[in-house]
Amino acid sequence: MAAPRDLPGRPAAPGRAIGPAFRAEERPVPAPGAPGEGDARAALEAAVALAVAELGELAARSDAESAGILDFQIELLLDGELTAPAFARIERGEAAALAWAGAMGAHIDTLATDGDAFALRAADLADLRSRVLDALAGRTRADFPDGAVYVGRDMPPSVFLAHDWSKGGAVALAAGSPASHVAILARARGVPMVVGLGGLSVGNGDRLLVDGTQGVVRLHPEERLDAPPPDLAVRAPAALLGGQAGGARLFANIDTLADLDALDPASVAGIGLVRTEFLLAEAAEALDEERHLAAYRRIVERMDGRPVTLRMLDLGGDKALPGLVAGDPGSVLGARGVRFLLAHPDLARLQARALIRAAALGPVSVLLPMVTLPQELSAMAALFDEEAARLARQGVPGRRPPLGIMVEVPAAALTLDLFAEAAFFSVGTNDLVQYLAAAARDNPAVAHLHAGAEAAMFRLLDTIATAARAAGRPVSVCGDLAGDPAAVGRLVALGLRELSLAPSRLGAVRAALQGLTGGAPG
Amino acid sequence: MSETAPSHAFTRIAASHRSQVEVEVTHGVGLHARPSVAFTRLAKSFPCTVEVAVDGSGEWLNGKSIVKIIGARIRRGTRLRIRAEGARAEEAVAALSELVRRDFDEDRRHGRADGRADGRPA
């Protein structure tokens, strides 16, 4: 038995776990700016071929009636008239999944009229769209054994989200950052995580102890861990409080339906932030209006009348969606958030329709990520108006939801008075501080500047709170700062009384806020 | 129905590597999904180009494209012109017009109407 050996890293998500190592295969990272046109074309060709083969197998074991329908779908996929627009989009630089979904969406709008036997059926086209997207995603989907320690250079959020963490396990990364999205997810889910381990000489199946509190990974540990103590602070008395704590109202951030199921709806005032890019973490889901709606419906129904704020897909930057948009940490100053959505109106309209339909089910608000200028809000508002009118014409129940903006770009934070169209504001402190300090949150070399920029951050938060008050608009804080027991007192003092945080932080923040008011609940 | 009987709805213009025919659609509904699959699969089994035009329309559509065929709304009673150019053009036109005149074999082979001849795409 090999001797224990400690590998020093940086803590990213607290907790300790032991498990066998699972070494993730290194995938070549696409060069920034290179859309990889050849790759995208080959990927789509392969996905279409796979879809045709699947349909062929399905047809071979189906009854005659079903086989006829499947043959029709096969014939459609083999028809260059149908696929050419997708390949044309790839030539213009779009990723494979987005090109396919956009082209099929356009076909559904222009070709499909379900009126007679001679029209292409929208259902057939939507079915083909999903099947090919699944085929595209299938090549990149790779889960790992339950209870294993994921070992890799970095970890795509979609891989984290696709895994079942209820059986334990942990994450050990050679690179990575405590401020990355996957670290945020790990803290929210209570999965221990250590980053910045450098070169990791760990074999598949080696026993590892990951101590995410200390930031150390122990190879071949001798100790055994008892079952982790339950997070006592999170539960019991919270339910009585209905989200009220020390003059603040507490909301939950939700990334997945598992987060939702673990949350006691009575313990919060509502859902302050749903990161839909994590909720729909596969391209096949993100590009399927019905899957959006199904996920939103689950949330709205579980919250049972409490407000739910859904944020539109915040893609680009360090958030990739395989087949849809390549992750590129260098593009945190590029086309991400609402910029990406406005540049890909097919995707924006698809999500807008699902959000409008979800808003008919309960008190839903919609949050736009990475807004810089009022014109971006206006453009998205017009898009929502158009889609709401279209749904109304089609007789589909819907309600145009109020639109608010994320305050995470300094240019917007300093000019909230110009955003009269915004129904509400939500401060994304993680991005705001990285832009304020000009220090990328994924770069460990400049991570100390985030803490150092705290004074600037609180001055700006004061400005934001004052501007929102003057405009008569609600303002909430939904970044990590809202889940930091050491910071929430200062937020409340600034008048920022609506805090939205990871469910795992609710207990600690509630305790901190009640401490401020002498411990009396309320 | 006789396989060769020419009629007002069935005239052939023969040329080298180029062939054209006009045929009346007699199938109950017309070229909805299943007959269209039979038509395009048969068309694709030939190396020549295949195009169709509906009634008096001067617009020739790709006869190997299901999107084009179904979009042409070829109903019962439609006079369909089929033309082909290239290798085995005459054979293609004959086979496709026969398929139309046989009502796409739907009566005999309900379901898998992918043509009796090489129905798989090339």
UniProtKB/TrEMBL annotation, chain A:
Q: Give the required cofactors.
A: Mg(2+)
Instruction: Family membership, please give it.
Output: Belongs to the PEP-utilizing enzyme family.
Q: What is the lineage of its organism?
A: Bacteria, Pseudomonadati, Pseudomonadota, Alphaproteobacteria, Hyphomicrobiales
What is the scientific name of the source organism?
Ancylobacter koreensis
InterPro entries in the cross-refs: PEP-util_enz_mobile_dom, PEP-utilizing_PTS_enzyme, PEP_util_C, Phosphohistidine_dom_sf, PTS_EIN, PtsI_HPr-bd_sf, Pyrv/PenolPyrv_kinase-like_dom, Pyrv_kinase-like_dom_sf
Look up keyword Transferase and say if it applies.
Answer: yes
Q: What is this protein called?
A: PEP-utilizing enzyme
Residue ranges annotated for the PEP-utilising enzyme C-terminal domain, each copy included: 249-514
Question: Biased composition, Low complexity: where in the chain?
Answer: 1-22
Q: Which residue windows are coiled coil?
A: none
Recite the UniProt keywords alphabetically: Kinase, Magnesium, Metal-binding, Transferase
Q: Which residues form the PEP-utilising enzyme mobile domain?
A: 144-215
Disordered as annotated region, ranges: 1-38
Q: Where is the Phosphotransferase system enzyme I N-terminal domain?
A: 9-116
Fetch the Pfam families from UniProt: PEP-utilisers_N, PEP-utilizers, PEP-utilizers_C
TrEMBL record, chain B:
Alphabetic keyword roster: Sugar transport, Transport
State what this protein does.
General (non sugar-specific) component of the phosphoenolpyruvate-dependent sugar phosphotransferase system (sugar PTS). This major carbohydrate active-transport system catalyzes the phosphorylation of incoming sugar substrates concomitantly with their translocation across the cell membrane. The phosphoryl group from phosphoenolpyruvate (PEP) is transferred to the phosphoryl carrier protein HPr by enzyme I. Phospho-HPr then transfers it to the PTS EIIA domain.
InterPro entries in the record? HPr, HPr-like, HPr-like_sf, PTS_HPr_His_P_site
This protein's record includes keyword rRNA-binding: no
Q: Which organism is it from?
A: Ancylobacter koreensis
Q: Which domain of life is it from?
A: Bacteria
- Tell me what this protein is called: Phosphocarrier protein HPr
Q: Which Pfam families would you find in this protein's record?
A: PTS-HPr (PF00381)
> Domain HPr, which positions?
18-107
